User: Fold (2S)-methylsuccinyl-CoA dehydrogenase from Streptomyces hundungensis.
Amino acid sequence: MDATFTAEQDAIRRTLHELLVKHCGPQDVKNAVRTPAGYDGRLWGRLATELGLPGLALPEAYGGTGCTTADLALACEETGRALLPSPLLATAVLAAPLITALGTDAQKDALLPPIARGECGATLTVPGPGLALALGLTGVNTDGDWAGGGRAGGVQAGRTPQGAWRLYGEADQVLDGHSARLLIVAAHTGGFARGRTLLFLVPGDAEGLRRTRRTALDETRTQGRVQLRDVEAQLLGDDDCAPVGEALAAVGRTAAACLAAEAVGAAGEALERTVAYVKGREQFGRPIGSFQAVKHRLADLYVQVQAARSAAYYAAWDPGAGALALAQGLDALRAAASEAIQLHGGIGFTWEHEAHLYFKRAAADELLFGPVHRLRAHAAEQAGLFDPAAREVTV
Assistant:
């Protein structure tokens, strides 16, 4: 594995960083999340047209740039640094790869080019508490319980006598669920005993579809409630034997790598802001950053952030390590945000200061994609570390 960044990757990251510094400062973020969509549409349009961000990892045949997961992860590191409110995660990291993996040629031709141009936001619609399990991050996702499992809750699918699919049910805490123009809905079909979970395409303006924006802990990552009342849907793929669990797990691995890079970007920015503050804030006639106790705390935090960055970069080239990198990234972000609040003193606890935005991102990401101890436990199970057949080690 060659972990050296190419000149093109450095250019993408530098250009994105410069654009976000100018147009996505803390006040810009607060203004964007208060819009009906929850993000700045004009900035998202520039990111799509000038940098091709939504189609960064899509094939060129569908209007994308044909880059790799590593390129997308580096872009996510910069968007995480700015806490950019955007459809990037839901659209480019979760939804588009599922369409690429499972969609028919006609579905890919119709859906992927608008996504690559930034004209069509998409999202994966599963009940929020089950998202990490659906992506195979915290457990095995093949049983479909995360989508309702045929019991009450989740979304159910049934066929009409004419062979059309109809969906009914509800999913809460859906990323960009209130604003996405295309929903990829996970629904249980076939009854309780012999059913399975499939993915369906639902336009955002479908009859019988009701969507409501929900209050979220992290305002920069909007969530919505999706209610389907006998909504007509199109099966993603050409038959009902598609390997949905495998496709979701593959997307989960790349999503974990991107989320790890995003968390590292946010943690690094929180650390840089804290270092800059303690250099200028004086107490007893000297900067508080000159006190040994403060130096030690920031030095420990720097090591933790750099270790998480190394893990995220490794996962960008080998998404199989994504879950562990995500756990380390979330740990680093939570620690960096906590220290930022503490070392900013009284101002760090106020809603007006940006420190709380980083803390909320850390807490909300762990609720959606973790918790950290389950990410690590599932990775350990997959690696066979807890195999009961293994010999007991004696000392």
Remarks:
- The first helix runs from residue 7 to 23.
- The chain has a mean pLDDT of 91.
